[in-house]
Amino acid sequence: MNNKLKSRIGYASGDIYGGGAFMIFSLLFMNFLVLVEGLPVVATTIIIFIGRLWDAITDPIMGRISDKTRSRFGRRRIFFLIGIIPVFLSFFMLFYSFGIGSITGKIVYYTLAYMFFGTVFSIVMVPYNAILSDMTSDYNERTSYTTVRMICSGAAALICAVVPSIIIKSLGHEQNGPLQIPGYLVMGLIFGAVFGLCWLVVFWGTRERENLPAPEKISLAAWMSIFSNKAYKNLLGIFLPFQIAVDLVLALFIFYIDIVVRQYQNYELVVGTLLVCSMLLMAAQGALAEKKGKAFPLLIGIPVWMMSTIVFIWLDSSVSIITLCILAVLIAVGSSAGNLSTWSMLTDIYDIDEIRTGKRREGLYAGMTTFLRKFASGVAVLLMGFGLQALGFDQNEYSVLKASGAAFDPAAYAQSSIVWGIKWMFVLIPFILLSICLFFAIKNKITKQRFDAVLKGIDEFKVRGNIDSLSDQETADILIASGSAKEKLWGK
């Protein structure tokens, strides 16, 4: 195996965990806590919110730790080894309560289990999100690496959207409930082991730059200084609304399919179509990004997703499965564009920060970005839970009604405020978030030409201490990309 292929496969393998664990968590965790373990819906959303709040501590700290670490295995790669066993344990613990009987006891246990999961996620994913800038400084090659990563993530997400439920039903029970506990136990053991071992592959396939300078002490002001980076703030305007939209669509999708259009029997087919098309479209999105710039796929994909979202307003139980699958394909155009663009754009921010400050702070940015993404998502899911409660929706009650056969009138239920509330939450909130994402994508100023000028400027500062030898166009490109005046570059 040649070094480039080894490097791409090794790097991409990290998102077997990132994409796979995220998919299982998004599709099954709330369902497991509410219907299998019997926890209230609001208590479940509070558990998730507390876990995301805990990330306010772990993500930025982990970013700083990885920046400061010096070992024979590197400052990032060492954590891929350290995380193997904790990744296995933390995922398994999300789906098994070791016989705890009381509701209060389960709430406490799953809160701690999710905090543990979030901590371990930070240990491996924060260094992982920072390492690509060490592996290559080429603008298009970074896009290529991210494309392979997103394809791997999509494949893992597809498997994790289908196989866990097969295991759960085969070893547990067909119906949601406590009888599925053995299935969740085995599923947690199997996928925890897979997710743990993938980090051995990441360690094997990645590399880091050598001869790093001694780490500096970071003050609170230094932490906050990353928000003076205009390119980073614009990226957050793209990244956060997109990721929250993805999280809410995944969280609400099962409710929309089951309650609004009453086609739960086709749920796996629709979700599978969405995930397969997202994965297949990733290569095309990557080629488009390399040719037109990393933000360009957003300018096509996000409007397509927004237009398809509007259609969901008029759907009801008479909609055909073909229509649902077509809409899933259109959503995939947007989701693949967003995932490819946002993650590949993040790595360029590290170099823009370096020409502004004269420092390499990948871990700081990766930690803060991971925290902001999870915290914002946690708040959104918490509000969704309270929203469903305010609508009067009780998932346990709904499941009992469905199981009661003749006593349940689906047509009558479809006219209730609950159905209309879920429909508008599913349509309106993602549409607003995607509009914000598109607005900031249009404002993006980082092109390949400007990024190449930034790299050239960094080299000039290291050799000469200034960029006076650069052409007027290169200097102008650096100033536009960095959002800084010339006399303030390199921490001056």
Cα gyration radius (Å): 23 Å
Order of helices and strands: HHHHHHHHHHHHHHHHHHH
Oligomer: single chain
Mean pLDDT: 88
Catalogue the unreliable spans.
none
From the spread of the alpha carbons, the general shape counts as: globular
Tally the beta strands: 0
Measured by DSSP, the beta-strand proportion falls in: under 5%
Major beta sheet, specifics? none
| Structural classification | mainly alpha
Structure annotation, total helices? 19
Distance between the termini: 45 Å
Helix content: over 70%
Jot down its keywords:
492 residues; 19 helices; 0% strand; globular
Structure overview:
- With 492 residues, this protein is mainly alpha-helical.
- The protein is 77% helix and 0% strand.
- It is built from 19 helices and no strands.
- The longest helix has 37 residues, at 321-357.
- It is globular and about 75 Å long.
- The two termini are 45 Å apart.
